[in-house]
Automatic annotation (TrEMBL):
It is found in: Fimbrium. This is F17b-G fimbrial adhesin. It comes from Caballeronia telluris. Residues 194-340 form the Fimbrial-type adhesion domain. It comes from the Bacteria. Its main location: other. The keyword Metal-binding does not apply. One of its GO terms (biological process) is cell adhesion involved in single-species biofilm formation. The lineage of its organism: Bacteria, Pseudomonadati, Pseudomonadota, Betaproteobacteria, Burkholderiales. Keywords: Fimbrium. GO terms for cellular component: pilus. Belongs to the fimbrial protein family. The keyword DNA damage does not apply.
Length: 340
């Protein structure tokens, strides 16, 4: 319930009470005196008290899934062919998230809500194959008869955009659905009233590593494409939650550079030479300063366990790019972390 007091809901002459320790997601319904429910069916879904969200989680990613939760049994008997019921989300102010199919605002920026019910002996694999709840409420004729109410309910939290850190009282108030053949009423109860959402990123312990390269003789770079020298640096990440991380390097002198050779900075006096960064034996190509998944030349680092540190070792070498001119050779690059 969204209040500490208990609430009594009425359907015709049948009463049920939901204790204040639960947030009741009971659909709004008209008083239908000619309908009665025996053993009001309900599916109780427990919300996660804490959700750690990778900061760059992609829109559309399912952040949390209750999976299908079976309801308790029950039947509904209606006597009039004109008996009707409203179905979908109850409460007020729930809005569709633009660009998403049947995903509604949850009260947390960047997180949308999708819920569905189905009256069947077994649920489908895909939530969209069931009856996805919608807002505003729709009305449907129930008709006369006795209908089995057993089924399943499911809730998903879906990333819809940038996520803000904080604790939000979801105050969810939606309910169930009555439809077609077989017709049925599904009531969803959600355990726990709040979820703490934390937009997480790993902290970088070596934010600006400097690499000092030893001098090399021109004879060591005797042709274009020849490489020489060796330097190294390590980027260390501390990750509070498990994430899939990626990194993109950007050429500071020319951010549009997509090769593996950064341009020398304007304070350089040498020419005909560049630096190459390697991850193991693989050359690193430069990309844009962006964290979105799929960024050009983004390097996938894979899964990093939560509450752990990870060292990312890289090496650096000279590469000849043209006619050599001796002098100082300086280059600058930035790196952008992406947590997905």
């Amino acid at each position: 319930m969204d209040r500490k007091t208990n609430r009594v809901c009425r359907l015709g002459k049948v009463f049920w009470v939901i204790a204040g320790g639960l947030v009741s997601l009971i659909m709004a319904m008209p008083a239908v005196a000619s309908c009665s429910v025996t053993g009001v069916p309900s599916s109780t879904i427990t919300l996660p008290p804490n959700i750690g969200v990778p900061r760059n989680a992609a829109p559309g990613q399912v952040l949390w899934d209750s999976n299908w939760v079976q309801s308790t049994p029950g039947t509904m008997t209606c006597n009039s062919p004109t008996d009707a019921m409203q179905f979908g989300y109850g409460g007020a102010g729930r809005a569709l998230v633009p660009g998403f199919n049947n995903v509604y605002t949850s009260g947390i920026p960047g997180i949308g809500l999708k819920a569905a019910v189905i009256l069947a002996a077994s649920p489908p694999g895909d939530i969209d194959s069931a009856t996805v709840l919608q807002y505003p409420l729709a009305t449907q004729t129930v008709g006369a008869g006795t209908f089995n109410q057993a089924g399943y309910a499911r809730i998903q939290y879906i990333v819809t955009g940038p996520i803000s850190t904080g604790t939000t009282n979801f105050g969810l108030s939606f309910g169930g659905i009555l439809y077609g053949s077989p017709r049925g009423l599904q009531i969803v109860l959600v355990n726990a009233k709040t979820s703490t959402v934390t937009a997480q990123a790993c902290s970088v312990q070596t934010a600006a590593p400097a690499v000092r390269m030893a001098q090399v003789a021109a004879r060591e770079l005797n042709s274009v494409g020849a490489t020489a020298g060796h330097g190294s640096f390590t980027i260390t990440l501390n990750c509070p939650i498990a994430v899939n991380a990626a990194i993109t390097f950007t050429d500071v002198t020319d951010p549009t550079n997509r090769t593996s050779n950064p341009n020398l900075s304007t304070d350089s006096t040498a020419s005909g030479v560049a630096y190459q960064i390697l991850q193991g034996s693989q050359l690193v190509a430069y990309g844009p300063d962006a964290a979105e998944p799929g960024t050009e030349n983004q390097i996938i680092l894979g899964a990093i366990p939560g509450s752990s540190s990870k060292d990312l070792p890289f090496s650096v070498r000279y590469v000849r790019t043209g006619p050599l001119k001796s002098g100082s050779a300086n280059a600058k690059a930035t790196f952008t972390m992406s947590y997905q």
